[in-house]
Amino acid sequence: MKKLIIIAFILVGAISCTNDFSEWNIDPKKATEVPASTLFSNAERNLVRTMKTQNVNTNIFNFMAQYWTATTYPDESNYDLGTRDVPGNFWNALYTGVLIDLKESTNVLNAATANVSPALLSKHNNQLAVVSILEVYTYHVLVDVFGDIPYTEALDIDNPSPVYDNDSDIYASLFTKLDSAISNLTTGIESFGTADFIYGGDVSSWKKFANSLKLRMALRVKDGAKITSAIAGGVFTSNDDNAAFNFLSSDPYSNPLWENLVQSGRSDVLVSDTFVNIISPLNDPRTPAYMDNNKDPYIGGPYGANNAFGEFTHLGEIFHKPDFEGIIMDYTEVKFLLAEAAARGLGGVTGAENHYNDAVKASIDYWVTGADTAAYLAQSTVAYNATNWEMSIGMQKYIALYSHGFEGWASWRVFGYPVLNAPIDAHVSAEGMVPVRFTYPADEAQRNGPNYEAASASIGGDKFSTRVFWNQ
Predict the structure, then answer these.
(1) Which residues contact 321 (CB under 8 A, 6 or more apart)?
(2) What is the pLDDT of residue 471?
(3) What is the pLDDT of residue 435?
(4) What's the rounded mean pLDDT across residues 374-397?
(5) Which CATH class is domain 36-250+324-463?
(6) How far apart are CA 447 and CA 450, in angstroms?
(7) Pairing outcome for strands 243-245 and 326-329
């Protein structure tokens, strides 16, 4: 009886203290407010996964660059991108999976600015700057792929039909945004710490990445002043600077290539004959890393054909590892960009051959231990040719970017090398043709060229690139 009286008194006391029971309905395990760091982490993960996956529904750049080809489902290898709406899926992955999270991360940080102590202000500003750098990277990819895209009115839930901004105007804005982010970085002070899966919060590394990205973009638009500025700011100087996401050996943070090639239990991807026929005669030390030895000699699958998996060369063992890192920009690319700048006489850069040799060495060192790079470069088929530097840089950069599908495809569009194969069964609107080189900004003659409408129709309609034009 005494126990019942005590319990009654406790209940009466508890009820008399409050008449607000709203907190009883809050699940402490389901957050209603997301920290900026969590949003940033998710954006990083989604961005790298989108750029590195080999999923015919989302990312087919390794096909478009003809590094790889398909077995059972060759639609995309034949420029039929509408069957699974690949352009739309890639578009959505970057807008809704990356840019929205980066915007919300910025909003959370901005809302907290007034309450940040002076001692933590530099860290706070570093976080804002790093988010901005990743936004620039993402928008730059979208512009390179689609041309005009929503930018100034993008990501507004109340505006379902944002205006499509001019691609050149977006690039100009991205340079401004990138410069601002770089100037707001304070080295020696961290940013997101362990929530940053690319650089672990190291601001010096983010600064190098930002300047290297600026160098890439400056070469796209052939702007010498921006090239000079990027180099002066400090670009990658070794493979240790590579922008690489550290995937883990288990879901949900494993490399999507492993998911596509191993976990799925499917046998959908082969090395293409285009790539095998390019690299095999060169005695390239990267060959065993790039390709499996299931066929001796290597036999590439005919690009665009319906290939039997067992009859052709498979991807190298490293691409079947769940924890293989996902690189979105590396030192090798930076050295090739410097070689290109020197060859074009832009930005005061000199020594094209030295940068070219350094680029090839950096790539080989990444993939192979103890390889004789000097012997490889001494071959007449590999040595830098100053009179045809576009071929030299184009070919070796293409080889070095193997598995970096987006940038390999973009590099081919810049240099026109190597010669790619027109698939026999190409989509009727493509007329068996392959996309040609592009320049920034695209001129009106290109935009209004006679084959633009057919090209657009073959690859997904008006939502795909104003920068894809077809050979006459």
Answers:
(1) 255, 258
(2) 27
(3) 55
(4) 98
(5) mainly alpha
(6) 9
(7) antiparallel
